[in-house]
Amino acid sequence: MEPTFSAKLIAFFSGFSGAAAYGAVFGVLLICGLGVPIPEDITLLAAGILASLGKMSLAGAIFIGLIGVLAGDAFLFFMGRIYGYRVFKLPLFRTYFTEKRIHAAREKVLNNSKFICFTARFLPGLRAPIFLTSGVMGVHPFTFFALDGGAALISVPVWVVLGWWFGNNIDNALTIAKEIQLYLLLGVALLIIGYVLFKRGKRRPSPMETTET
C-alpha cells in the first residue's frame, strides 16, 4: 500500500536529529503557518516521535512547536496589518487564499473577532485565512496573541505528547490523531454553538424590559 502523505512527512522528519531536527520542525511549521497545505498537526506529531526516539527532548519539541506555530501566525497577522486588503493580491498569498476562503474568514472575524482568534487554531482549513484577515481588520495585537497563544498552549502539547507516547508506532499514532482531530472539531463546534446561543440570550430583552416598553 502506498504510504499516506502524513506517513511520508513523518518519515521525512525521522532523518533529522539534534539541531537539524529542531530546524526542520520549525521551518515546516513556519511554512504551514503561511497557508501551505502541509498538516501542522502531523508536523507536531512528528516532533513528538523524534523526542521518543531521542533525537530531541520532549520539552524542546513542545517549545519549538510553540515557537514555530506562533511565528507563522505572527507573520500572517502582521502582513495583514501592514498591507490591509492589498495582502490578498501579493504573489505569496493569492495562490493559497481563494476568494471563498477569504470571505468565510472575513465573516467569522466580523461576527466574533476575539472568539474566533482562539478557535481558529483548531480549524485547519480556515486557520491561516482567519489569522491574515484578523490583521487586515485591525484586531489588536495583544488580543490576537493572547488568544492564539492560549489555544497553542493547548493544541501543541497535545500533538507532541501524542507522538512521544506512541514513539515509532506511526500507524497507531496516525489513527489516534484522526480521532483526536474529530473530537477537537466536535468540541470547537459545540463551543461555537454555545457562544452563539449565549450572545443571542444576552441580546434578547428580559420580560421586565418588554413590559416597560
What's this model, at a glance?
By secondary structure, this protein is mainly α.
The chain-level mean pLDDT equals: 79
Give me the secondary-structure category: mainly alpha
Q: Give the ordered list of helices and strands.
A: HHHHHHHHHHH
Give the count of helical stretches: 11
The largest sheet, given as strand count, sense and whether it forms a barrel, is: none
How helix-rich are the residues, as a percent range? Answer: over 70%
Fraction in beta strands: under 5%
Structure in words:
With 213 residues, this protein is mainly alpha-helical. It has one domain (5-199). Helix content is 77%, strand content 0%. It has eleven helices and no strands. The chain has helices spanning 5-13, 19-33, 40-52, 58-83, 91-94, 99-111, 113-119, 127-136, 141-166, 170-203, 207-212. Helix 1 (5-13) packs across helix 3 (40-52), helix 2 (19-33) runs antiparallel to helix 3 and helix 4 runs antiparallel to helix 9. The longest helix is centred in the C-terminal third of the chain and has 34 residues, at 170-203. The protein is globular and about 45 Å long. The chain starts with a helix and ends with a helix.
